[in-house]
Design brief:
nine-stranded mixed beta sheet; about 35% helix; 2 domains; Spore Coat Polysaccharide Biosynthesis Protein SpsA, Chain A; alpha/beta; 15 helices
């Protein structure tokens, strides 16, 4: 019932996997993906010469070669140990549901330690190209063969295939640990999260954007570059701008953050609103001490005790002294220079946009640049930025908003992804302005909340962002239907 396809380098662990597959009554033939067809061919195997694993030409060769009902695809050249009746379990699920793709939780060996690696359920908003399916997939051959490649992808072949399959059927995750493999990327979560904006991956990202944009068009969620115009109203604001810092227990960093704001030079009035979310480590006292010396610092301790970062933002935005534009600064970070606030306001006035996002530089605690360096989010373009925003996992920093609009929309009361959620909502209707020079320093240190997350915590965060993307895809589909007179 199954054709298996796996990268093959002729190593012992390849032969052990081939032996396991040959012992299964469900696997009729094994195709070895190689870039050198002079390698010796093990029993019941056929060589399939490919140049890489990610291109659309490789995917086409796999689909053309597949003659059985299902394709068992190994996407990495790793050592694998299949669990008890793992192939049978994959097969029973896909055969009984007639779905397009089945995947499972798995185990990893990381630095000689065996660990569980659960993955998330796929949903309509799981559009990021680094969604973790694991590296063992069982695919419906017939659905794969209906794929028509409109573009020749060098990097986005597998991504384009799974987007196609997601339009054909739902995906099913088996919440069981059906195999064990080697974890090859041992970096901490804080280092991995910026891979998609690393300049060395630019060509990859351009292809991923193209594949995602085509997918959004096919599911009716693509938005043309037609935007509502922002009319900066006649609302009276005592301050033109407010910098907002939500904080809890950042005694070692909050003073630097505050001072980087109070040292700003502008041709308008601005203030700083620090929302102190019941700190217990001395942060509160530091804020109060500075506030006594500078009246521009407004120190808020909310009455509510159920607030996340988004809820703290809402407290500040709805404060009577919040300025016309509300600007973000995390309590770990600082502005790059004394002109940041002025540059942001100038961008609002020039572009008449609802939101402005700047460029930041990754640094260590000593303000020394660290990889990947400058994060400018060049994947955001005026014409396609709001569509590509559904694929990436963040929009950049610093973020700034037109306060009346932010008061209308409200920020989700969570402590992760709240900025991404509000950015997606705004971009559905309004243009977002961009600043491509570094105006913000993002300081990475062991105390950062996302420096080293467990896989369970990463899954919670990723599931939330997938969920808000799902909400946004559905909202955009509805927006398009309404525009076309379809209720």
């Amino acid at each position: 019932m199954i054709n298996a396809f796996l990268p093959y380098s002729g190593l012992q662990y390849n032969l052990e996997l081939i032996n396991e597959l040959n012992n299964s009554n469900l696997v009729s033939k094994i195709f070895l993906l190689v870039n050198n067809d002079s390698i010796n061919v093990p029993d019941n195997c056929e060589l399939l010469k490919v140049m890489d694993l990610r291109s659309s030409s490789t995917i086409e060769k796999i689909i053309d070669a597949a003659q059985e009902e299902y394709i068992l695809l190994f996407t990495q050249d790793n050592k694998y140990q299949l669990g008890q009746f793992a192939i049978e379990r994959f097969y029973n699920v896909i055969n009984s549901t007639n779905t397009g793709l089945v995947y499972s939780d798995y185990m990893t060996i990381k630095e000689n330690i065996l660990e569980k690696h659960p993955v998330n359920d796929y949903q309509i908003g799981s559009l990021r190209d680094d969604f973790d399916f694991g590296s063992v997939l069982l695919l419906n051959t017939q659905m794969c063969k209906s794929l028509k490649n409109e573009n020749d992808y060098k990097y986005a072949g597998i991504y384009n295939l799974r987007l196609h399959l997601s339009r054909e059927s739902q995906f099913i995750r088996i919440p069981e640990f059906l195999y064990t493999t080697i974890e090859t990327d041992t970096r901490k979560s804080g280092a991995k999260q910026f891979d998609y904006v690393n300049p060395k991956n630019r060509k990859v990202q351009i292809e991923m954007e193209l594949a995602c944009t085509e997918h959004l068009k096919k599911i009716g969620a693509y938005l043309h570059p037609n935007f509502k115009q922002i009319e900066f109203g006649d609302e009276e604001f005592e301050y033109e701008a407010s910098v907002i810092i939500p904080v809890k227990n950042r005694v070692n960093t909050i003073t630097d953050a505050i001072n980087s704001v109070l040292s700003q030079k502008t041709d308008f009035k601005f203030n700083l609103i620090v929302v102190d979310n019941y700190s217990t480590d001395g942060t509160t006292e530091k804020i109060s001490e500075i506030a006594k010396k500078d009246s521009r610092l407004i120190h808020i301790i909310p009455k509510r005790q159920d607030l996340g970062i988004g809820g703290c933002w809402n407290e500040a935005v709805h404060h009577k002294l919040c300025g016309r534009y509300a600007m973000q600064l995390d309590s770990d970070d600082i502005y790059a220079n004394e002109n940041t606030v002025q540059i942001i306001v100038n961008t609002f006035n020039k572009e008449k946009c609802a939101m402005v996002i700047g460029t930041y530089m990754m640094t260590n605690f000593n303000l020394q640049e660290i990889p990947p360096g400058i994060i400018d989010h060049k994947e955001w373009t005026p014409d396609n930025g709001r569509n590509n925003a559904l694929r990436i996992n963040g929009l950049g920093a610093p973020r700034a908003f037109y306060t009346p609009l932010l008061r209308e929309y409200k920020i989700p009361n969570v402590s992760y992804g709240e900025d991404y959620a509000i950015g997606l909502m705004i971009s559905r209707d309004y243009q977002i302005g961009r600043i491509y020079e570094p105006i913000y320093l993002c300081r990475r240190w062991e105390g950062n909340s996302d420096a080293a997350l467990s896989i369970e915590k990463q899954n919670i965060f990723n599931e939330y962002k997938d969920r808000i993307r799902t909400i946004e895809v559905i909202a955009r589909q509805r927006k398009n239907r309404n525009a076309n007179g379809v209720l």
